[in-house]
């Protein structure tokens, strides 16, 4: 346990002799969300807090700042999938909030300025604005931000390196060690919750153990025990996103292999400790590489078709996502692509932008009139945007053998790398920015109750988020270059789209409808994060609060009666917890991806983007301060009487 901040002292209410009792605020979770919230707390405290003494406790088994995901204790080979210049904890003039703007350096600026010596001492190199730095660099940045925030707080700050296991109805917070903290306000900022295995995953694990096989279910790759994956043995991997990239790194470079480059070709030199990875997924292709360039003027802009006003015009109440909302999303992305193409690269078009835009305004991207317009106005297929083809590049394709599949897949990856590095295809950047803008509108629609729970789970949190991640949240380009090098070295093989896995007598058997034959292995890895389900959360605190009724979450059921699992923890518009009986807990606040109303506010905000996380943090921080000030006034009146 560590303590920082000014020494505790009693404050006197101005112009009286009334003693105001100190206030205690407990934050459960010490990761970036708590850091950002406390930064906003410190910013508005001079305006709202008055002279109240405040004690802040931060409870987390991992050091405050980075928390679990951004802890220092992880492989330095694991990278961020964001550029250093795209990550900040600090507000800027773009942020629309009631609290004061307090600027601070983004990750790139910090690494080349205030953080340079700190990084050198940690044995880390600095990062340029366009670099994808190691996660350990982000850990150092967040640790520095935490220290700066603590210094700015008008409060004592105590950290507890352990878990909270219970919170009572009177805000008594019980820690794993048995220590108890009586709080006036409690904030749960728990981040992504681990969950118990599903029935299917538990069955896989039991059957695999009985057959002497290795099964690794969904989870955070950095936390997974990979020792059961043996050198040179085949491993079936289902999942081709960030979790796979981390797995790939930890089973190759982390086992002693290395790369060198000659004439622009990357070559991998095996250590002999690597397994052979047969990777497939629903799409059968890796996530698109992150864009390797910026273009002036191509920043996120307000949506044109998918707007709150447009949704209101569709009628009151719940909207059907597939028939009413999804067409507007498709139209939004199509508009962004072609607007950038026509305006930045007119030599590759045959019409004026105004003429083309008029067709899109009155049709949908799949309408025959618009398809005909694209064929006439955009001669090169490489310049056309067909969302279905972007989403599933291997759909309806069949390959004679695995060699034919691999040839096509290598070509797709090589083309992606070239295109994502070339500003001549800046329409891709425009689509990326449009995706961010669409997410902001969807978050408003969700919190306003315009989408059913089934549509939210099936179509937004699963399908739409999957598409967003595939297009906009892929790996650094270097990682796909390494993937190709590993393929040339025989370490990674491609298994195809719509990959299914079954358990045979003594082997896992994987197959894809796109390619004949099957793959057999004694190890199988689900390279993905577990699907969120708060009702299946393994965290004892969440389980206990749900059981006691202090927290509530729906068990979601689809229209056909099938279970969708647990919904998010319920919170009102002020982020206060909603209890099982429907009443609002006035002093228990919830923040994070497992909480209703947090859509779009998770993750790190980009500078000058008015990130929703900033806006939510500011509103909650000011609400906390207002409650503390009210309690201060009540205490003063009580002592006066």
Summarize the model shown.
By secondary structure, the chain is an alpha/beta fold. It has three domains: about 1-195 and about 530-640, FAD/NAD(P)-binding domain (3-Layer(bba) Sandwich); about 200-285 and about 475-525, FAD/NAD(P)-binding domain; about 310-395 and about 420-470, no CATH class. Helix content is about 35%, strand content about 20%.
Write up what this structure looks like.
There is one protein chain. With 641 residues, the chain is of the alpha/beta class. It folds into three domains: 2-195 and 532-640, 3-Layer(bba) Sandwich (FAD/NAD(P)-binding domain); 199-287 and 476-526, FAD/NAD(P)-binding domain (3-Layer(bba) Sandwich); 308-393 and 422-472, no CATH class. It contains 17 helices and 24 strands. The strands form seven sheets. Strands 1-6-5-4-10-24-23 form a seven-stranded mixed sheet, covered by helices on one side. A hairpin with a 5-residue loop joins strand 23 (576-578) and strand 24 (584-591). It is globular. The protein starts with a strand and ends with a helix. It holds the Pfam family NAD_binding_9. Residues 26-192 form the FAD-dependent urate hydroxylase HpyO/Asp monooxygenase CreE-like FAD/NAD(P)-binding domain. InterPro entries: FAD/NAD-bd_sf (IPR036188), HpyO/CreE_NAD-binding (IPR038732), L-asp_N-monooxygenase_NS-form (IPR052189). This is FAD-NAD(P)-binding protein. It comes from Kribbella orskensis.
């Amino acid at each position: 346990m560590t303590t920082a901040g000014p020494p505790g002292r009693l404050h006197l209410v101005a112009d009286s002799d009334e003693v105001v009792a100190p206030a205690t605020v407990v934050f459960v979770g010490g990761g970036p969300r708590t850091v950002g919230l406390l930064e906003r707390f410190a910013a508005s405290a001079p305006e709202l807090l008055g002279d109240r003494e405040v004690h802040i406790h931060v409870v987390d088994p991992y050091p405050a700042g980075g928390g679990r995901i951004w802890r220092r204790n992880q492989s330095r080979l694991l990278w961020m999938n964001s550029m250093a210049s795209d990550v900040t904890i600090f507000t800027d003039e773009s942020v629309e909030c009631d609290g004061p703007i307090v600027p601070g350096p983004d990750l790139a600026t910090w690494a080349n300025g205030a953080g340079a010596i700190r990084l050198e001492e940690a044995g880390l190199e600095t990062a340029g604005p366009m670099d994808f730095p190691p996660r350990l660099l982000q850990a150092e940045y967040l640790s520095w931000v935490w220290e700066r925030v603590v210094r700015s707080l008008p409060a004592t700050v105590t950290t507890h390196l352990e878990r909270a296991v219970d919170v009572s109805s009177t805000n008594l917070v019980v820690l794993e060690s048995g220590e108890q903290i009586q709080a006036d306000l409690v904030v749960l900022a728990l981040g992504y919750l681990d969950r118990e295995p599903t029935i299917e995953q538990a069955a896989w694990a039991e059957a695999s153990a009985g057959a002497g096989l290795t099964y690794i279910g969904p989870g955070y790759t950095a936390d997974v025990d990979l020792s059961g994956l043996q050198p040179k043995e085949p491993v079936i991997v289902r999942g081709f996103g960030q979790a796979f990239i981390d797995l790939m790194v930890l089973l190759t470079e982390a086992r002693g292999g290395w790369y060198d480059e000659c004439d622009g070709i990357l070559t991998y030199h095996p250590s002999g400790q690597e397994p052979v990875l047969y990777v497939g997924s629903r799409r059968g292709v890796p996530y698109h590489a992150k864009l390797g360039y910026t273009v002036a003027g191509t920043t996120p802009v307000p949506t044109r078709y998918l707007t709150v006003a447009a949704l209101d015009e569709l009628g009151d109440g719940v909207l059907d996502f597939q028939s009413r909302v999804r067409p507007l999303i498709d139209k939004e992305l199509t508009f962004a692509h072609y607007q950038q193409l026509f305006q930045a690269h007119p030599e590759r078009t045959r019409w004026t932008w105004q003429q083309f835009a008029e067709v899109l305004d009155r049709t949908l991207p799949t309408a025959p009139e618009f398809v005909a317009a694209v064929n006439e106005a955009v001669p090169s297929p490489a310049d056309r945007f067909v969302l279905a083809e972007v989403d599933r590049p291997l759909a309806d394709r069949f390959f004679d053998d695995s060699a034919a599949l691999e040839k096509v897949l290598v070509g797709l990856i090589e083309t992606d790398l070239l295109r994502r590095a070339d500003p001549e295809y800046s329409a891709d950047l425009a689509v990326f920015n449009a995706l961010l803008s669409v997410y902001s509108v969807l978050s408003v629609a969700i919190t306003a109750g315009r989408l059913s729970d089934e549509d939210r789970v099936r179509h937004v949190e699963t399908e739409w988020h999957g598409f967003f991640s595939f297009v906009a949240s892929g790996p650094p380009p270097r990682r796909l270059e390494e993937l190709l090098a590993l393929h040339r070295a025989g370490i990674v093989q491609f298994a195809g789209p719509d990959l299914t896995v079954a358990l045979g007598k003594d082997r896992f058997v994987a197959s894809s409808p796109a390619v004949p034959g099957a793959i057999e292995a004694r190890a199988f890895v689900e390279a993905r994060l577990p699907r969120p389900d708060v009702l299946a959360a393994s965290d004892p605190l969440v389980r206990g609060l749900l059981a006691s009724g202090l927290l509530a979450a729906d068990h979601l059921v689809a229209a056909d009666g099938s279970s969708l699992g647990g919904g998010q923890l319920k919170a009102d518009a002020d982020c206060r917890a909603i209890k099982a009986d429907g009443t609002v807990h006035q002093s228990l606040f919830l923040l994070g991806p497992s909480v209703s109303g947090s859509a779009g506010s998770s993750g790190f905000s980009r500078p000058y983007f008015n990130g929703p996380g900033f806006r939510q943090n500011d509103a909650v921080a000011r609400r906390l301060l207002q409650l503390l000030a009210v309690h201060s006034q009540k205490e003063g009146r009580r002592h006066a009487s």
